Amino acid sequence: TIKTKKATMSLSIETLVIIIIALVILGLGITLLYKFIGGAESIKTTLDERTNNELERLMVDQGKQVALPLHVADIARGSNHLFGLGVLNIGGAGNQFQIQASISKIINEQGQETTSTEDINYINTWLLYNQESLQIEENQHIKELINVIVPKDAVKGQYIFNVQVISDNQQLYGNVQKIIVNVR
Length: 184
Hints:
Layout: H1 2-61, E1 66-67, E2 72-75, E3 80-88, E4 96-108, H2 117-124, E5 127-129, E6 134-135, E7 141-149, E8 157-167, E9 172-183
Parallel strand pairs: 2-9
Antiparallel strand pairs: 1-3, 3-7, 4-6, 4-8, 5-7, 8-9
């Protein structure tokens, strides 16, 4: 019976030690996870703030009707990138606007331009943005996001997208803007 008590006591101490080690590892894992999430959020707000400041500078300070700062990005396959587009209504074009974006040119790794109808239709699905009519009162401005989502099976190369804003009288508003995506 003494051996049984010692074995039982030894087994319960070993179990207790294993539980304590498991809890410590779990706590460290949760702490590490929160650090990663917190770091990602601070990077995201910094990028957004930088784009925001540049949009404000271009629209408010320089009076640009349509602004697309920081329009070049290197994006790995399977990743995405957010671009900021600003529209300033300076008057004379109504108060309804619509964003239109589409692929303009595809340049493969060898530097040759390649386009086919299938490629164009497929690549246009990479763009995610607000396609609804936007109401902007005179002397007001808005900021919209254009998310370029590059699929994992994308061909490496350079993709140039045209972004334009159409006013409610169906006229081009401002200049056509370019987004340049280098897929790596």
